[in-house]
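Appendix B, record 7
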Amino acid sequence: MQQPFDISIGNIDYAVFPEGNDVYVIFKEGKEYLSIQKDTDLQWIKLDPETGTPVFETDEEINAIGREILAYVPEEEEGDEDPEED
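Structure tokens (predicted):
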């Protein structure tokens, strides 16, 4: 499973916690903000905080967060490469 990571949109920082099945819990500026689910590469759906059911309304902030999630490339950890043998 993917590890949590941070993204920034403009001057706002978000922490992204993957939950599996294309669902992500988003923290905005250190506080739990919302849960989103990927619908398509361009459309993301907000999940109701109480029921977890999809809320079908267009929200550009949610779609911008989704685009950043798709664009995120995890940093490679040091020590992953095998040392060359002499």
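Remarks on this record: The CA atoms of residues 44 and 62 lie 6 Å apart. The first helix runs from residue 60 to 71.
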